[in-house]
C-alpha cells in the first residue's frame, strides 16, 4: 500500500517573550534582539527590564483562604477559644523560628552597628546611634492587661540558647568597650551636648553620677546614653541630663564646681531650675507621654529630693509618675518596653529596660520603708527576669571617686552587675516583708499565720545570704580583708537591716503581739544583725569617708542603733553596746553633713536614749546643709545638746530581773531581760510627753508638726523609734 505523503506540520510562530523598554512605551512590535530594529532606526538605547511573573492562584491557595475566612468568622462567635488557639500557634511559630536561628551559623542574633562616620578633613568623629526598629519615630504605645478590652496578647518569651546568650553578651560587651573609647573622642571633638555647661564640669558631674550608681542600681545605661548624647538619639534628653547634673551635685567637692552649680548655699540650684523648666514648660510633653528618658529623670530627681533635700512629698509624686510610666509602657511585663506589635527590641533595648525596671523596683521598696507607705511595684505583677547581659562594669576596676577624700583606683573589679542582681533579689524579699508584716491588715492576722510568714521570710533571707557569690560574701571577722567595695558593704548592711525589720515587730507589743519566748528569739535575730552592721560600719570607716556613705548604710545604722540602745540600757556605761551605739551616732553625725534624713534619725535616737536612761559620751551637733532650695530644715538653729546626766526626768537603768522564775533571757544574750526589752517599746504615762507649752498633744502628733517647729527641743520628747515610715515624723 502506497504510503500517504506526510502532511507538513505548520509551525506556530512563537510570540516574543519580552520587548525592550522603548518598544513597550511606544506600543511597537519588538524583535527582541539585543539591539532591536526600532531602536536602531531611531537611535535609542535598547534596554530590557526584568518582569516579575505573577503566580496564578491555585486551587489549594483558594481553598486555604476559604478555610481561613471561615475560621475568622467562627472566632468572632467564640473569642476565648480563638485566643487560646492563637497563643498555641504563636508558641509553635516562636519555637520554630528559634530553632532556625539557633541552627544557623551565619545569622547573627544581634544587629550590627553602623560604621563610625569619620571626616578626615575636619577630624570630626562621632559615634552613630545603633539603628534598631525602636529608633523609628515614636508611636502611641500603651500597655493593657488581660482585663482590658484593648488587651495586647503577649508574645511567647523566647528562651535563648547558651550560644545565642554568649553571642549577645559578647556583642554588648564589645559595644560598651567601644563606646567608652568614643566618649573621649566625642569630648575632644565637641560632639557631646552639655546643655550650656562647661565640658569640664559636665564630665565631672557625669563621672560622679556613674560612680554613685553602683550601690542602688543602673537607672541609666551608660553606653546608650553617652552614644546618644553625641548624636541626639532616643536615650538622651536634656531633661535627663539636668536630672543627672542635679543628682550628682551633692557629691561635688571642689569650691569652683560648687559655685558653678548654683548660688551660694544652694548647690545644684541651676540644674534643678533647668530640670523644672524642661518638665513643666508650656510646650513640654514630658508629663503627657511616657518615655524612657523621662522615667529615668524622674527617678533620679526623686531620689535626690528625698535623700538630700528633704522634700518627701514631691519625691513621692515623682516616683509615682515614673512608676505609672513604666506600667504604661509595659516595661514591667517582659522588660521589652511594652507589647509593641510594630516594634522589635534589640538586645541593647532589652538591657536598658531591664536595668530601668529593677532600679525603679528597688527605689520603690526603699521609699516605701522610709516613708511608711505602700509600695507601688509588686513582685506578683512583674515578669522581668533579673538578667543583665552587659558585663563591662562587672570587671572594670573600681575608683573611689565619691567615697574617699583622696580618690584612687583600686586593684579590685567593681562587680557592679552581680551586686545589682543580688540587690534585686533582696528587694523582692523586702517586698514580701512590707506586704506581710507592715501592711494595714497584718495586725489582724493570727499569731500562727504571722509566725509562719516570719519563718518563711527568714529562710529566704538566709538562703540569699548563703548563695551570695564568693566575691560579695565578705567575712567581716577576717583579718585578711585588705580591700572592700562600698556597694558590697551597702548590700550587706541592707540585708541585716531587713533581718531587724522582719523580727523587731515581734518584740514590740505595739505592733504584733508576741510571747516572751517568741520575743526573745526575735530579739536575738535583731541583736545579731545589729552587731554585724557595727562590723560593717567599722570596716567602712576604715576604707572610706563616712560623710558620703550610701543611704542604705545610713538607714542600717539607724536600725541597728535602735537595738544597741536597748542592750545598752541593761548594761554598764563602758559596755560594748554603748560603744556600738556611739559609733552609730558618730556615723550618722558625719552623714548628716551631706543629707537631711540622718539628722532626723539622730533626733529619734536622742529621744530614745533619753527615755531609756542610757548615758552617752556625746551627741553629734546639728549642721546646716546646702541644697537646691532653702527649707525649714536648713534654717534650723544649732543648739547645744544638754548633757544626759543633767536631765532630771531620766529613768535609771534596771538593776533587777523579773522575779517570775521564768527564763526571760535572750538566746545568745543570756544577760538580757526580754521583758524589759519589750517594755522599752511600750508607750505609757511615765514616758516623757511634749513640753508644757504644747499641752494636750501626745507623741504621735509629731507627724503633724509644721516645718520650722522642729526647732523645739524635740529630742526631749521623741521617745518612739519606728523602722517603717520613720521619715514621716518630721
From TrEMBL:
PROSITE patterns: ZN2_CY6_FUNGAL_1 (PS00463), ZN2_CY6_FUNGAL_2 (PS50048)
Source organism per UniProt: Clonostachys rhizophaga
Database matches in PANTHER family: TY1 ENHANCER ACTIVATOR (PTHR31313), ZN(2)-C6 FUNGAL-TYPE DOMAIN-CONTAINING PROTEIN (PTHR31313:SF86)
Biased composition range(s): Basic and acidic residues: 110-122, 634-654
Cellular component terms per the entry's GO annotation: nucleus
GO biological process annotation, one example: DNA-templated transcription
Subcellular location(s) of the protein: Nucleus
Region of interest (Disordered), residue spans: 98-122, 625-669
Record keyword Oxidoreductase present: no
InterPro entries per record: Transcr_Regulatory_Elem, XnlR_reg_dom, Zn2-C6_fun-type_DNA-bd_sf, Zn2Cys6_DnaBD
Identification of the protein by name: Zn(2)-C6 fungal-type domain-containing protein
Keyword set, alphabetical order: DNA-binding, Metal-binding, Nucleus, Transcription, Transcription regulation, Zinc
Pfam families linked: Fungal_trans, Zn_clus
GO MF: DNA binding; DNA-binding transcription factor activity, RNA polymerase II-specific; zinc ion binding
Residues of the Zn(2)-C6 fungal-type domain: 19-48
Matching CDD domains: fungal_TF_MHR (cd12148), GAL4 (cd00067)
Keyword DNA-binding attached: yes
Record Gene3D superfamilies: Zn(2)-C6 fungal-type DNA-binding domain
